[in-house]
Amino acid sequence: MCPQSRQDVTQMLHAWCQGDQSALERLIPLVHDELHRLAHRYMLRERPDHTLQTTALLNEAYLRLIDASRVEWRNRAHFFAISANLMRRILVDFARSRGYQKRGGNLHKVELDEGRIASPGRSVDLIALDDALNALAALDPRHAQVVELRFFGGLGEEEAAEVLGVSSRTVKRDWAMAKAWLAREMKRSEKRDGS
Q1: Does this model's pTM top 0.85?
Q2: Residue among 68, 49, 171 at smallest CA distance from 108
Q3: For 62, which of 79, 91, 140, 152 is 20 to 30 Å away at the CA?
Q4: What does the angle CA 92 – CA 98 – CA 179 come to, to the nearest 5 degrees?
């Protein structure tokens, strides 16, 4: 997305916040492709026979974003961070509604990208990862936000720093600490569950 388009997205988000519904209509074409890529990345981590498809995930995210019109959008990066969080919540809610056990059972294992999490080659289920992120958020909300922005939202250090209002060095440090904490927590969880 070119710098002008990024600025346009931010301006339309602000206008939408102020109640301009036509801004939302102009915004959707500008963000659709990037939101679709984000939804596709999420669905690649799901089992092949998952009943929810990329387009359905994207549509559900759009519905929830429209309900989020009271959010005070700061900028484009903030919008995509919220979108990533919504998609994660949709998938976790879907998994829980399907009656899967909290850990193990028939849950599909999700491969985490080696470059994004501390335990390369390990697989974790989405609900277990969500539980670990919630535990991390209780201890240190910013560390959990960094994971959401970097891993789930696909934002780089600079964009995550912009969303959080901190330096990119702080994001880098938080990212390293959060990965280590999540790896340790996931290992403990696996031992508790006897997997």
Answers
A1: no
A2: 49
A3: 140
A4: 25
- The structural domains of the chain, with segments of one domain joined by +, span 1-70, 100-195
Residue 82 is encoded by which pair of tokens? 């919220």
The model's pLDDT over 2-36, given as tens digits with 9 standing for 90+, comes to 555 777 888 998 888 888 889 888 998 989 998 99
CATH topology of domain 100-195: Arc Repressor Mutant, subunit A (1.10.10)
Whole-number Å distance between alpha carbons of 48 and 50: 6
